[in-house]
Structure formats: structure tokens, C-alpha cells
Fold each of these.
Amino acid sequence: MTDTEPAPAVRETAESIATMEIRGAATIASAAAEALAEQAEAAAEADATASDPEAFRASMRAAGRTLRETRPTAVSLPNALRYVLQRMEGDSVDRLRRSVTDASEAFVEQLDRAQEDLGQVGANRLADGDTVMTHCHSTDALACIEAAVEQGKSISAVVKETRPRQQGHITAEQLRDAGVPVTLIVDSAARRYLDEVDHVVVGADSIAADGGVINKIGTSGLAVNARERGVPIMTAAQTIKLHPETLTGHTVEIEMRDESEVIDSESREEIGEIAVENPAFDVTPPRYMDAIVTEHGQFPPESIVTLMRELFGEGAAEPWAER
Ligand SMILES: O=C(COP(=O)(O)O)[C@H](O)[C@H](O)COP(=O)(O)O
């Protein structure tokens, strides 16, 4: 490891995020914070950095950049890096190392607590006997449904499979394990089943200052259909999903993934020149979302900007910016 080369553990985490072995905004955030702690431990031992605080700091920033470059849409990733790197302090490598490992641990603890707290808020929106519809796999959305079950409510679920990667299967299994009767459907059956649904619950990868919700591709279509059917839809999202750069007019980059997730190589050859596109996320305009449920309570999407300003001020620096 040179002074700017990330430790093997960081490269492994980055690779797992890029290939989606580690996926979902909250899980990506905690893996990134933990990878920074591993970087700190490795850099405190490595020849190039062990006795040079500046080289140590440079290696932490390089690790941050490597982790950041994996996937562009979930803001929980740069927010996690920012949380840990902004708490890096001390004039010796040992102090710097400790500040990073402490911040990483505190971040992961806060993440878990926030999910528990928002779960209670989301659960209060669900009534005994409700059927919920889900899209993709969101640990924040699941926390709401699981908390409702723990409150003694009987909940059943219609789970969209979520093409192309079928994260709905993970949701279905987790809900089944929580004692929730589950019906798995293909994405295009959603509108038909909305007539049997009392609430749609989804997660978020990023939330923009105007209340726009960026989540798995298909969320916006589901939201429009839910509105047309009169079914309320909520986004369960811890505040690390709030995108500080949107406060200053930036837009959220939508990840385009490889066409091989959509079409196998044999079919690819058969269809020849036809273009295949695979956007991983979309934006649901605030007017189609009934509530954003966070660990600080529920918000109408249009008012989320107030919470954002409180938490981030008027914006946020790149997580690896030198201070
Ligand atoms: O869109 C996805 C996952 O997309 P992908 O599978 O492409 O990562 C999830 O709804 C959000 O990340 C929220 O998840 P959580 O609530 O667990 O943070």
C-alpha cells in the first residue's frame, strides 16, 4: 500500500458495491463507513503512512474517493464518507486512526437507531388488517412493516419482483420470515393489484430539496398508479438519504447499468442493432408522494427542504475535500 493506495479491504468493499453484492442505500452507507475504519487500521500499520499524519490523511481521502466512485445515485454513500472523514482529527497517526474508527462506529450505530425510529413512525401509518405493496428491497421500508407487525397489527404484502435484478425476492423472503403473508407479482401487474392494497411503501436512494424521491426504477410509475387508484404511498428514508447538493441546484445522477442485466448474450445477438438501456433509478415528483417518513417524523415531501437545511446548512463539501 502506498500513501494514496487504498487498503485491500477498501478495494474489496468498493468492488462489492459496484457489483451489487452490497446493495441498498443504507447497507452501502454502513459498508462504506466500515471500510474507512479498515483503511485507518491498515494505514496505521503501513510503512508509508504509520508515522506520517499527512500521508495518513491522504490515504483516507483516497479510500473515500475509491468508495465514492462505485455507484452514483445513493447519496447515503457520500454522506457516510463525509460523516467519517469530517470527524478525522488529531496530530498523530494514532489519534487520527482512533478518530476515524470511533466515527465509523458512531455512524453505523446512528444508522441502526434511525432505522428503528423511522420504523415506528412508518408503522403508525399502517392499520391492523392492511395490505401493503412494496417495490425493490428497502431496509427502511421493511422496518416500517416489521414494526407494524411487532405492534400486533396483521399486515399482508403484495411484493413487486422488480426487474431486472429481482430485489423483490429478497423483500418477499424477509417479509415471509417476519410472519407476513406475501404475494409476489410481476411489475406490470402492479396496477391491477393496487385495488387490493391499502398502502404502498418504498425506500429511497436520494431525496432532493424539492421533495423528489429517487428510488429504484419503476417507483415513479407505481406512485402515479397509486395516486390514480387512491392508494397512499410513503417513502421510508433515514435522513442520510437527503441529498445536500440539491440545495444548491445540483441534480441527482441516475445510474445507467449494463445491458447484460436486461438481456442475455444469446438474445442480444438475435436482436442485433436494437438499443437496450438499463436505468437503475427514477425520480418520483413530490406531488405523487404522500409522505416521507424519517427518524425525525413524517414530512410532506414539499417541506423536506426545511429538515435538509437544519441538518446540512446550505450545502456540503465533497467528503474528501481538504479542510
Ligand atoms: O432502490 C433501492 C435499492 O436499489 P439497488 O438494489 O440498486 O441498490 C432501495 O429502495 C433503496 O436503496 C433504499 O434501500 P434501504 O432502505 O435499504 O436503504
Note: The CA atoms of residues 105 and 208 lie 27 Å apart.
Amino acid sequence: MQFFDATTLLLVNALFNGMAALSWALLGSVFRVAPRASWLLAGAHLARLGALRCHECRVDWPLHAWPALPDLFALLTLALMCLGVRQLLRLRFWWTDVALIVGAGTLLVLALRDQPVLLQVGGSAAMALLALLTWHDVRIGARPLLRTSLRWLLALPYLAIAAALAWRGSRPFWDADSTSISPLTIWLWLLLSLASAVSLMALVLDRLVGRISQLSLEDPLTCALNRRALMRELQRLQALVQRGHPFCAVLLDIDHFKSINDRHGHAGGDAALVHLVRELHQELRPADVLGRLGGEEFCVLLPHTQLPEAAGIAERLRARLENRPCPGTIGDIALSASFGVAQARPGELRPEAVLVLADQLLYRAKSLGRNRVCVEGDGEREAPGEEAAAGGSA
Ligand SMILES: Nc1nc2c(ncn2[C@@H]2O[C@H](COP(=O)(O)OP(=O)(O)OP(=O)(O)O)[C@@H](O)[C@H]2O)c(=O)[nH]1
């Protein structure tokens, strides 16, 4: 049974690729979704149109190179698709490996243009390599949160394209009529194009979902974790305390922040908050968690940390803030903060109990003169007087 003749199928294929190119172009230019990736993928579908057109009108091409043109367009299609996927997945934008394969493939295809059988073998090999690269990129680049099985599923169409190209390249060895294109073959390519388009759309959706969930957990000004995300981390760490992994909470509040706003304006205050988060991150370990509780109050969660060590870290943070003023438009903005440090207890049912304790210690640090660290059970730590930072401005 035969569904449609080859010409009709080529037309359907061309229509599909034209629509796909238009969709990616709209996505990139109007909706600004992954614009660079979208343009590369729109280019890939346009190049595919070129490859199809060449099959259709071989007799019309006056160029000497016409036998090689379908393969050259197909090479371009796969190269643009590979680069588009890399861009979409925000992988390090390597293009040298793709350029090398395309360069070598182009030379091979042009050199073999008068030998259809060898042309088919060489062109297919270069294209299969590009499809394999894309398969590899999707597998390693898709969001780590995605289940492994889902990542494999999204990468599968590229493996299937590589397999189909290997089949095409091997045909001359076992099929006397290897250069002919049957409707079945065109069906196969149409299905593979559809499968890769679905996979690409799923990757775009995944990228959007990833961005939205990141925004829902992030403080928009400082990019530190927001209160909700911080509470989630707190719960996770409290669960680990029961299994013998201690953690400490450090609460800090900028001193006299109101006067920073008064003197440097709201924009100056905002810049000071961003500066504080940047400075704290420089001092913290990758596993430490920094979040903004609200206003000028922040919290650091220190996993696998006992109280004396946490007190030392808080003191380092305090000194760093004091010694590194924030550059402002009307002069440096001197910053200091008061700290409360407490350790989570095993068996505590309310994860926020450690925050309540740290908050009391922070309040104590404020009442003792600010710009100092107060540690649970230990009284406050020595710190320079607040005069250096009082007024918040140099
Ligand atoms: N620029 C800016 N200011 C903020 C933001 N959130 C809260 N504030 C301001 O921070 C100030 C906090 O002032 P207070 O609570 O009196 O605390 P303080 O002046 O730091 O005094 P102490 O904490 O007692 O040292 C208020 O004026 C708020 O308007 C913000 O996101 N940006």
C-alpha cells in the first residue's frame, strides 16, 4: 500500500519545514524565547527546504555542482540544528567541532560530486556525525532536573536520524539502486523531522519551565534565594540534622539602612543590597545557602557546620562587609551589619526554631551597639564600635 506519491510527500515535507521555520522565527523575534537558538533552528528548517527543493528540481539546476547540492544543504541543516540545540540548552557554545565536520563534509561532497555512490556514502557519514553530536548534546545538556529516561526520550530522534543516515550511507554496499528515493524513504524523513521538532519544542518548554521555577525561588533584586526557597532549604537541612548532619543559621541585618536610603536614595540602597549579596557569596562555600528574608535582613544556612565554625564564618562576613564599601554615585556607601548565629537542634519539630533563636541573637547584637556577631550561648563576639559605620555613608 502506498500513501501519496513521492512528489506529494516532498510537498508535505516542504510545507512542514516552511511552517517550522516560520514558527521558530516568530518565537525568536516576536516572543523573544531563546532568540539566538530560535534563529539557528529557523535557519535549519530553511536549509532543509533547500535540500528538498534540490531533490525536486535537479534537472533545473544549471550549476556544475548540482549533484552535491542536496547533501550540502542537508549538512547545513544538521549543523544549524546542532548549534541551535547547544544554544537552547545553554551549553558552552562550541562551534569548532561542528565547523570541522561541515568543512570536511563539504570538501568530500564536492570532490565526489560526479560519483553518486561515493557521494552518498561520504555525505551521509558527515551528516550522521552531526546528528550524533546533537544526540550527545541533548542527553548531557537537558535540564539536570529532568529524569534520565525523559532526557533519553528527547535525545532519541537525533539517534534515529543518525541511524537513518548510516542506513543511507551503507545502501550502496547492498542495494544496486541505492540512489533512488522511494515514498517510504520520504515518509521516514518526514517522521524523523516531526520527531525532532517535537523534541525541540519540549526542550524550549523545559527551558521556560526552568526559568519560571528559578524566578519563583529567587529574590528579583539581589538574586539570592527568596523566603520561600529559604524555608524549603531549612526544612531539608533540618531533616538531615536528625541523621547526624549539623547545620547553623546566621541571620544578619544591615545597620542603619534607613539612613543609607536617606543619603544615597532608594537606588543607592538597592545597590547596597546587591553589593552585600555579592560580597557574602565571595566568602561562602558553594554548599552554603544565602537568602533574603525581606527588607535588609538576610539569612545564611551553613550545612555540616558546628557553632564555633559558624561563629568564625559570621565574623569573616562581618569584617568583609565593613572593609568593602559599596561604590555609589555620590561616594562610597559604608556598610555594616549585625549578626545572630544559632545551631539547629536534633529532634526539633519546627525547622524555623533555629531562625527564631538566631533572630533573638541578632536583636541582641543590635541592642549592644550593632556591627557585631552574637553567638548562641556565648554572648556577643568582640567587634569594632559602630561609629565607623553609623550613618551608613563615607
Ligand atoms: N532601597 C531599599 N530599601 C529597602 C528595601 N527594603 C526595605 N528597605 C528600607 O530599609 C529600611 C529599614 O529601616 P529600619 O527597619 O528602620 O532599619 P535600619 O535603618 O537598618 O536600622 P537598624 O536595623 O536598627 O540598624 C526602611 O527604610 C525600608 O524602606 C529595598 O528593597 N530597597
Note: The pocket of guanosine-5'-triphosphate is lined by residues 221, 253-258, 261, 266, 269-270, 273, 295-296, 366, 370 (CB under 6 Å).
